[in-house]
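Practice record 12: protein with guanine.
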Amino acid sequence: MSARILDGKALADEVRGRIATDVATLKEEHGVTPGLAAVIVGEDPASQVYVGMKHRASEAAGMLSRQVVLPTATTQDELEQVVADLNADDDIDGILVQLPLPDHLDPRPVQELIDPGKDVDALNPYTAGRLAVGDPTFLSCTPYGVLEILASAGIPTSGAHVVVVGRSNLVGRPLANMLSLKGRDATVTVAHSRTRDLAAVTRLGDVVVAAVGSAGLITADHVRPGATVIDVGTNRGDDGKLVGDVDFDAVAEVAGAITPVPGGVGPMTVTMLLQNTLEAARARRGLPRR
Ligand code: GUN
């Protein structure tokens, strides 16, 4: 069997086109330009690439994009002051603080400080808690992108068994919460590094989502024939190439559908950040969700 390739890049282009149209309408009808601020501390090369992509994508969608680049030696107080200033800045609708921060900085108080109305990255515990109690505000960008890929491919979550491998606050945990919400109605298993016989667990999945950060972790053995495999991993191979958590060539022989890396979930993460920023700009002005 050869799996259907779920093209996240093509879907991202389509959704970004819709977002750009909505941004233009918001400008015309209400004189509002959604504004996104991305804060990056230090010189992590991957973070610089990701923040650069977010910057270019938000400008391409017609948004105001502000990058706040801070030196590695920035103190906790200085970083928190930057976030407080962005909270108070009326031109800014969405704030994200790129992770990882340098080791001497604690991300948690910074995330707690982000105005929940501007928390487009959904990492404030208030935002995560609203999702956990079934009344979400902003959805975390990567899990939101995964849901959009499944929906656009016509792969149902209702009643499906979805095995999420990974329990991070950025992906695994919020995705499990989203999938089990009323309306999505998946049966969710969260597997992680202490899971016994991972392959036996993932083989139960109608959908397997790999979000661990371990190149090639998911092999053909881990996947039931015909299952959908979503690869959230972004690992650098020895040759510098981007590879996922899934052994793509082998798993594509077994799976019914699979996302590639690159060109799968990654472009949708950035896209859902734009979507959240647009929603934040509307909500902050009392306009209804679209
Ligand atoms: N680092 C890797 N992915 C992300 C993300 O989605 N948001 C933030 N803030 N940092 C990240």
